Amino acid sequence: MADNGNIKVCMGLSGGVDSSVAAWILKQQGYDVFALFMQNWHDASTTLHGDCEWEEDRFVAEMVARKVGIPFYFVDLSKEYRQRVVDYMFDEYEKGRTPNPDVLCNREIKFDAFLKCAKKLGAEYVATGHYCRKETVEGPDGQKIHRILAGADPNKDQSYFLCQLTQEQLSQALFPIGDIEKPEVRRIAHEADLPSADKKDSQGICFVGKVDLPTFLQQKLKPCEGDVVEVFDAYYETDGHYADIRRILQSILRDDEDSLKMITDYVSEDKAVPAASAGCPFDPEKIATLSDEELMTLSQPVKYDIKFETETYRSGRKHIKKTRYKDNPYGKIVGKHDGAQFYTIGQRKGLNIGGHKDSIFVIETDIPNNIIYVGEGHTHKGLSRSCLRVAPEEIHWIRPDLRMVTGEIRRYRVRIRYRQPLQDATLIMRENGLYILFDTPQRGITPGQFAVWYAPVEDALSTRAKDTSVEMLGSGVI
To answer: Is 387 considered catalytic here?
Structure first.
């Protein structure tokens, strides 16, 4: 880049190794760089270790700025963070949905409130330590198009967290380490003798730290004891909604596809997961004939309504009268919880339920009745779903020029959580929302999380001759 010294860049310096190396790279490239550290959280009582992480982070960030040789500034955005991120989290959990605070932080804080502060200090761009790449190209109409590509390090790609950014926000963003893999970032940090070279990566909620989530949420959400109900396999044999899902999926199979999968193949996202399926098992022409009602049926999770009757019996020598639940073929009350709003679909930690051979997972949270439904094992039917829906008002296109129109069907690659390998899927746009139909069932589709869709970078607009990466095109709240 020619004469970078005329371009003023604000580096969002967090005190971590990634933003430190990003600052060092920008300085080496000749940009007019300054560092801005933001404090977004004050309450140390909610973190697991109880001390103020931000104070240590600020101290390290200041040392990094001195080492790199750039000015250092500080801004307190804790009011904006609580209003735009934390309050939204509380509201979503209260509704039984699971939000992603890191996505919200990028959309509402780093590339909005923080960006505005940076511009007041004269910055033309804001840079962060995200592992993703930005590419600016010229569209057919001569307008600039800003693209987000997956990071070069497949194990650290953080594009997912930027899935709600707009073209305007991207036009002012830089991601200096997107082309570098994490081990190389560490090597550069050591070579440059940066104070953060050996600092561990941050964990937990963005800018809050590692927290015990129920304790954190109890700041506003009241604990309320309820039942934990284990759902048995027999429930699905008689449930009409599950039967409808099976029937609809069966009706759109390709003629040469002889079996329908209703349960996910993989056990853990940390283990081997096929990056691509063997091919779409569904016929696109048959998909196109599905009614809005059928698509809505596919996208809705199974709801549970298991009634338990009691019976009295006499126990012990004195034949003391006691009450117990009658055996039920569809389920069993296996424990108690402190509030259904504190749990999320797919969760297996913190349930404290013993006596099972395999792990127990949350498969549904009934907030109005304060019941948690669970299932045993990775292959439990309640964990897997093949289709999800994004409401019209929740659909966000990073590339507005590629926006789908009603009735359109496209093939994209999708992830429903950070670090999940990309999954092949068919996107179907209807007036009542965007439906995502996966080639293979997905485990733990969670309301409130973001579904993000990508496409291979292999079109004429790309400036990278043989790029085999993917571009993030859009996202939506499940």
So the answer is: no
